[in-house]
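Suppose you are handed a protein chain with no further information: no name, no annotation, nothing but its sequence. What can you learn? This example shows the usual starting point.
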Amino acid sequence: MSEPSSNAFPVYWEQFHRDCRALAWRLKGVSEWKAIVCITRGGLVPAAIIARELEVRMIDTVCVASYHDYENQGEMQVLKPIDASVIDVEGGEGEGVLIIDDLVDTGKTAKVVRAMLPKAHFATVYAKPKGRPLVDTFVTEVSQDTWIYFPWDMGLQFQAPIAK
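A reasonable first move is to predict its three-dimensional structure. Written in structure tokens, the prediction is:
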């Protein structure tokens, strides 16, 4: 993500849930989804909401890490690839598969996952201009210099993960 700036966009649980449901509405009828692949970690919550709303039962994760300190994007690492049974769900390359993430920022993660599932439909809740061309469906576009604070990142102020 872009480094934190004065363009802060805090998203609270109620708003995030509404935005995820709005994304589900946009995805309803686009295809008969056979599976969801969520990009961890940010895609876990929206994938759960969308899977419920669209009644999709086959859910997998692809674990890609690029932010190792919450500020600077580093080397892309695929920590867990997509299961072959999901890739081949409709004959290969991700047809009938919905990729879900919370945000597309620079598009680096999206490019890695798109290469794994070139025929899948890519959907995010939020999109920034640099990554926007890689996404098929999204709910809200924000400027590239906006830092989105997701509900799981916040208390009354930014909360570092417990493991830190």
